[in-house]
Amino acid sequence: MSPTVAQHLQDSVKLNNGVQMPWFGLGVFKVQEGREVIDSVKTAIKHGYRSIDTAAVYKNEEGVGQALAEAIQQYSVPREDIFVTSKVWNADQGFQTTLDAFDLSLKKLGLDYLDLYLVHWPVKGKYKETWKALEQLYKSGKVRAIGVSNFHVHHLEDILEDAEFIPAVDQVELHPYLSQVELREYAQAKGIQIEAWSPLAQGRVLNDAVIQSLAAKYGRTTAQIVLRWNLQSGIVTIPKSIQEPRIIQNADLFGFELSAEDMSLIDNLNKNERVGADPDNFNF
Predict the structure, then answer these.
(1) Which domain, by its residues, includes 205?
(2) Taking every annotated instance into account, which residue ranges of this chain make up the domain NADP-dependent oxidoreductase (predicted)?
(3) Alpha-carbon distance 145 to 138, whole Å?
């Protein structure tokens, strides 16, 4: 079954608990706290983005929060129209420590609630307790949806053995060189939405001959081709940028559609090649 393809920047997918999450958003990994992250987030919201993804370990939650407050006022965008994600870092995993970390993130962001809170990495011996904490946060109404990040199939299976709630999202490294087909099929069967971080493989896929030929064919940038492939594959995606022209360009994905043949060409680029750590061999 082919996924519903987003037709507009603000189109959303319904998560397994009924909450709507935008298909496309802005990631702020490695965006510096202060003016850089404030300007990046405000620029994205000004140009129609409605999803912002941060994490405790990015150390820019305060700047994201300031940007959100300013953008909500300046551009008359209601808070409930903006989907805000953060993540509990590995050092804070465990039950009570996760609850405390969440409260600190919420305070730094200056928000009353989060839209999505994720377990950042599957820290062995801790992630199940961490998940119980997220379930409690969800039941308390402090977060609208809960999920995980960097979880392989076996981590998800482990969580689901005694979870009260199925994760709404699994945010993983995903791009044409690491297309994660097995994980995507498993997640789809379980009702878990896959979200891509590093959707451009930190730029590596942009030099690929196939991607470049498709960019020429469609009259688009190489980044637009890859991000469009993500959306047509039913993957929520959050590219990072701090430059206004790139923020606008990255989101200009709705005036064209890749053919089934061209989607297959990109599918066939998979090498199981990572730019980030393997969750099974991460130095926690």
Answers:
(1) 21-271
(2) 35-270
(3) 7
Residue with tokens 């493989």: 201
**pLDDT digit string, tens, across residues 15-37:** 999 999 999 999 999 899 999 99
Q: Considering 58, 127, 138, 186, which one is annotated as catalytic?
A: 58
CB 24 within 8 A of CB 253: yes
Domain count, the chain: 1
Cβ burial 238-277 (10 Å sphere, 16+ → b, else e):
bbbbbeeeebbbbbbbeeeebeeebbebbeebeeeeebee
Residue 126 banded pLDDT, cuts 50, 70, 90: very high
Residue 66 is assigned to a structural domain of this protein = yes
pTM > 0.90: yes or no: yes
The Cα–Cα gap between 45 and 68 comes to 8
Q: C-alpha distances in angstroms, 260 versus 11, 229, 263, 265, 280? A: 22, 10, 5, 9, 33
Q: φ and ψ at 121, to 5 degrees?
A: -140, 150
CB distance 117 to 88 below 8 Å: yes
Does residue 184 belong to any structural domain of this protein? Answer: yes
Asked if pLDDT for residue 183 goes beyond 60, the answer is: yes
Neighbours of 116 (CB within 10 A): 24
Does residue 244 fall inside a structural domain? yes
CA distances from 194 to 115, 143, 243 (A): 16, 19, 26
Asked if the structure places residue 3 within a domain, the reply is: no
Q: According to the model, what pLDDT value does residue 6 have?
A: 86
Task: Give the CATH number, domain containing residue 78.
Answer: 3.20.20.100
> Using 50, 70 and 90 to split pLDDT, how confident is the model at 60?
very high
